[in-house]
Every structure is written in structure tokens, then in C-alpha cells.
């Protein structure tokens, strides 16, 4: 589904040059749940933005669903982002003056069809992420975890096959982060949604089915993972 081949990216020039991605190659199949873990500044966000077609300033090749990103005209790329990929960010990126349901249905503002159905679909998606009864709340009335649930419902609105999540638990406490990961797991296991999640938190990465370690713009390890259940471990009081 995703093929990253010899991708490099450099910021700045001359003495101020920083190589942020160094010849990164990577294959991700449909239905995978992959965590990319690395310290701050290692290039994780840059890589995710390249895969999601948000950043086209790189060398090498990236294909999503067989379409080579570098070859797509901007309009086609935007269409791909809007129809095939959902994005979830650390800061939720919700609009405070809209209700939860309106935030979820926001993608429908950009497509003329079925605005009447949009509200109903938004409410259904909110139920799916455990927010039934909160569709009329404004983000200001919601906790961080609830806001992230709204953002996840919004990312699913256009029925994407792929979710790209950049530090989705970075603004949440540990237990709330685990709850959010359980939603991702369910979406992956029940609906076959492909997930790529960037994180710097070890216990969060361990809830994915494959862990790619990233250091200084390079993949240093890439391993299948038997997802752990940190919520259970927390109850048992075990060390990580
Ligand atoms: N727009 C930019 N201009 C210059 N350097 C940048 C820019 N964006 C990111 N960087 C640098 O690229 C490196 C990787 O950044 P990033 O991909 O955000 O890392 P991570 O998400 O792992 O924290 C960092 O050293 C960062 O300072
Ligand atoms: Mg980042």
C-alpha cells in the first residue's frame, strides 16, 4: 500500500544544511498498524508528511496505493489526501466555535453532495469513538481525550483506508493515551484500517503490531510486535 524508496530530505543550504531524512526505504502493507518511534528531532513528522503528501520537497520515491506522489499534479494529490488518507495530530486541530458533530462533518463542507447525511454520519462516527451524546458539545467543553476522539471521528469522515497519526497521545495523560490507542487498535482489527503512528512514547509504540525505530533521519530497526496491553500492566503494577 505504501512504498518509500530511498527518500532523502535536507533543510537549509551551505553550512546550515541539515539532512532530516537519510535514504529511508520502507514498505507498509494494507491492514498494518505501524508505530514509528524516535526521539524529538529525529525526523518522524517529516517522514509522515512525506508519506501523506503534505511535503513534496524530497528526493526518492513514495507511492501510496500504487500512485507515485512525486508524479501527481497538486490537484490529484489533494484529492488523494482528502479521499484516501485521514490525519490525526497531537493538538487535535478542532474549531472551538463549532460543535463536535460539525467538526467531524467539516470535510463535507468541501464536497457539495449529501450535506443532510453529513450530520447523521458525524453522530454515528462520534458514537463509534465512544462519544455518544456529546455531538452538540463544543471542544471547549471536552477533555483532551474527548477532543482527540472527535479528531479521530473527523479523520474517518471520508472513509479513508489509511490513517496517519502524529503524536496522537502527546498531549494526553498516560491512561487517556492508552484509551486512544485502544480505539486505533479496534479500527485496525475490526475494519482493517491501515495505521501509521508516530510517537516518542515506548508504551504507546508497544500497542502497535510493528515498531520502526527512527534515529537521526534513519531507520535503525523494524520489527513485528505482539501488542502489549499497558492498561493491564498498569493494573498489575508491573514494570515496563
Ligand atoms: N521547516 C523546517 N526548517 C528547518 N528545519 C526543520 C524544519 N522542520 C523540521 N526541521 C528540522 O528537521 C529535524 C526533524 O524534524 P521533525 O521531522 O519535526 O522531527 P520529529 O517529528 O521526530 O521531532 C529537526 O532537526 C528539525 O529541527
Ligand atoms: Mg514530530
Question: How are the secondary structure elements laid out?
Answer:
Layout: E1 2-11, E2 18-28, E3 33-37, H1 44-51, E4 59-64, E5 67-68, H2 74-84, E6 85-89, H3 100-104, H4 115-128, H5 144-156, E7 162-166, H6 174-191, E8 194-199, H7 202-205, E9 210-215, E10 218-224, H8 230-236
Parallel strand pairs: 3-8, 3-9, 6-7, 7-8
Antiparallel strand pairs: 1-2, 1-4, 4-5, 9-10
The protein binds adenosine-5'-diphosphate (ADP) and magnesium ion (MG).
Q: What is the topology, as strand order, of the major beta sheet?
A: 6-7-8-3-9-10
Count of individual helical segments: 8
Would you tell me the overall average pLDDT? Answer: 91
Helix content: 25-40%
Strand content: 25-35%
Q: What number of structural domains do the residues give?
A: 1
| Helix and strand element order | EEEHEEHEHHHEHEHEEH
- Rg calc: 18 Å
Q: Please identify, by name, the CATH architecture.
A: 3-Layer(aba) Sandwich
Q: What structural class is derived from the secondary structure elements?
A: alpha/beta
Instruction: Pick out the low-confidence regions.
Output: none
Please tell me what the overall shape is.
globular
CATH superfamily: P-loop containing nucleotide triphosphate hydrolases
Number of strands: 10
Please give the CATH class: Alpha Beta
CA distance, first residue to last residue: 33 Å
The major pleated sheet works out as: 6 strands, mixed
CATH fold call: Rossmann fold
Bound molecules: adenosine-5'-diphosphate, magnesium ion
Amino acid at each position: 500500500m505504501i512504498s518509500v524508496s530511498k527518500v532523502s530530505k535536507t533543510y537549509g543550504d551551505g553550512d546550515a544544511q541539515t539532512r532530516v531524512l537519510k535514504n529511508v526505504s520502507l514498505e507498509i502493507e494494507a491492514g498494518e498498524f505501524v508505530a514509528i518511534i524516535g526521539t524529538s528531532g529525529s525526523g518522524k513528522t517529516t517522514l509522515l508528511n512525506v508519506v501523506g503528501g503534505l511535503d513534496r520537497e524530497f528526493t526518492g520515491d513514495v507511492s501510496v496505493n500504487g500512485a507515485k506522489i512525486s508524479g501527481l499534479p497538486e490537484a490529484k494529490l489533494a484529492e488523494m489526501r482528502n479521499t484516501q488518507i485521514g490525519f490525526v495530530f497531537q493538538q487535535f486541530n478542532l474549531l472551538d466555535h463549532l460543535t463536535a458533530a460539525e467538526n467531524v462533518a467539516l470535510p463535507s463542507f468541501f464536497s457539495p453532495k449529501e450535506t443532510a447525511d453529513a450530520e447523521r454520519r458525524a453522530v454515528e462516527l462520534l458514537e463509534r469513538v465512544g462519544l455518544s451524546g456529546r455531538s452538540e458539545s463544543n471542544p471547549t467543553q471536552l477533555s483532551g481525550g474527548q477532543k482527540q476522539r472527535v479528531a479521530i471521528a473527523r479523520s474517518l469522515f471520508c472513509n479513508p483506508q489509511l490513517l496517519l497519526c502524529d503524536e496522537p497521545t502527546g498531549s494526553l495523560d498516560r491512561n487517556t493515551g492508552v484509551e486512544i490507542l485502544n480505539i486505533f487498535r479496534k479500527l485496525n482489527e475490526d475494519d482493517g484500517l491501515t495505521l501509521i503512528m508516530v510517537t516518542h512514547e515506548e508504551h504507546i509504540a508497544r500497542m502497535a503490531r510493528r515498531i520502526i525505530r527512527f534515529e537521526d533521519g534513519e531507520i535503525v530497526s523494524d520489527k513485528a510486535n505482539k501488542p502489549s496491553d499497558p492498561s493491564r500492566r498498569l493494573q498489575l503494577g508491573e514494570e515496563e
